[in-house]
Specification:
Peptidase_S1; Thrombin, subunit H; 3 helices; Peptidase_S1_PA; protease; serine protease; 15 strands; 9-stranded mixed sheet; single chain; Peptidase_S1_PA_chymotrypsin; mainly beta; 6-stranded antiparallel beta barrel
Amino acid sequence: MSTGGSRRRFAGVAVIVVALALVTPVPALAIVGGEEVPVGSYPSAVYLSNGSELPMCGGVLVGPGAVLTAAHCTFDTAQAELRVVAHRQHPAGRDGATRSVARIWRHPAYHPYDGGPSSGNNDIAVLTLDRALPYPAAKLAGDADRDHYRPGAMATVLGWGRLADGGARSDTLRGAAIPVTDDRSCAATYPSFKPGLVVCAGDPRGGKDACLGDSGGPLVAGNVVIGIVAAGIGCGQPGTPGSYTRVSGYLADITAHSGSDA
């Protein structure tokens, strides 16, 4: 593995099992086909860095001192070096606030992206910060938010990742509006798909997607976080939606480890 976790990428559907076994996360500093969005409109969006304060993954504030992210984002950087940067529009800036990580909780049933039948399942983690942040926590999807997971419902994926597969790094927070995909299409794309625990989203025509460096970032419907960026086949390819950890399926775990009463 390389330094830093980022959105998993696969070469193509036909070779997905082989690619899962070979691919490793690549640190990257944005959303494909999106546009700049003001961080003030999404004050709970944060990013993870390895001390350089440049983004390697995304995350979302779920309590004054707790951040939700992808489990695979937490392996390659030592906890002592891991930083959470909040409310910073441009990574090169000095606005917002930075916090160290005091504790990491990973889902105990997380399976790395190793090509096995459970590859990538339970890709979720909660980071406890050394000090609280002065920004509002996100609202998390629960049972009452089922309509947000309806196929065709629109959501926005946020991040500071690459602008294209193999492309340049973004210098600002970006977002892209994409539709939620039906479970059958998601299962056809990702063999380890688990109903109720994974949701897919992406423009079937391609061109709008999360990309490298966006892992762990939020997929939001209005002001509700419905997913966490987990994996993808390339970035923005037609007919290949991105895979997201479904927040409603892990709400009890998230609240237990974040101090949130969502």
